[in-house]
Write a structure and sequence with these properties.
With 256 residues, the chain is an alpha/beta fold. The chain is built from six helices and 15 strands.
Length: 256
């Protein structure tokens, strides 16, 4: 069974943390409708949706990915790099407790789940404004007994590692080479984002289908030409909060 943990869009999303984007007015109603359509995509791809209640005082709380890294054997509760986001993790820990053994990043470590890309037994962690070496060392300590290797990857010009690179098939990554060194990922096949769509590198692989934003038609065409099955969703209002399709869910397998 595939579980997808999501959380409703906060009415305070307009007060979200921003690092690389200028603040724009976010239409909360439209953002909430887009989020429901995103959940519909997850459900259509076989996920059982576990929707957490809205957090009115936590503007970024819809972006549940940043609060945990869910491996097959355990879940690592993060310590987000923005202080305002650290209260988001407690409810995510409670939601994951029935499914995984939990461990948690401690100070001085900080890491956002958006900086964590797992490919098989290798966990890549973006060294960004939100995630640091201490967190990488703690993640390595937690995951090494289960056979994982953790590698830090420099990120430049974007918020998270998964702003720059995501997995779109078993052997294939979608990447913006201007924001991350693609050589860090070994012999994976690479599809590069279109130069006119630098934010097009974030895609969510569920089973063998990729949930992908409608905002990047040129990169979408590249994915289609490589035979990547796509399900399109409009997340344009959520993108104003530096959100993307991986950010809004924690998807994992549960043998229930």
């Amino acid at each position: 069974m595939l579980i997808a943990i999501t959380r409703e869009v906060s009415p305070a999303i307009g007060n979200c943390e921003l690092t690389h984007l200028k603040r724009e007015t976010i239409d909360v109603g439209v953002a909430q409708a887009q989020h429901r359509q995103y959940e519909d995509c997850l459900a259509a791809l076989g996920c059982e949706i576990h929707r957490l209640p809205v957090e009115p005082d936590l503007p970024d709380s819809v972006f549940v990915e940043d609060c945990a890294v869910v491996l097959d054997e355990l879940a690592i509760i993060t310590r987000p790099g923005a202080d305002s986001r650290q209260p988001e993790t407690a409810s995510i820990a409670r939601a994951l407790e029935p499914y995984r053994k939990l461990c948690a990043i401690q100070a001085p470590g900080t890491v956002d789940g958006g900086d964590v890309l797992r490919i098989g037994k290798t966990i890549y962690v973006g060294l960004s404004s939100r995630s640091n070496q201490s967190a990488i060392e703690q993640m390595e300590s937690f995951s090494r007994p289960y056979g994982y290797t953790v590698k830090g990857v420099a990120v430049n010009g974007c918020l998270h590692l998964k702003s720059a690179v995501t997995q779109v098939a078993k052997d294939t990554l979608l990447v913006n080479r201007n924001w991350v060194d693609a050589d860090a990922f070994g012999d994976m096949r690479l599809i590069e984002v279109d130069a006119a769509e630098p934010y097009g590198g974030n895609a969510l692989l569920v089973n063998e289908t990729v949930i992908y934003p409608t905002s990047f038609p040129r990169t979408r065409q590249r994915l289609a030409e490589h035979g990547i099955p796509l399900m399109l969703v409009d997340v344009s209002e959520l993108a104003k909060a530096e959100g993307a399709v991986t950010c809004c869910s924690l998807v994992f397998q549960h043998e229930g």
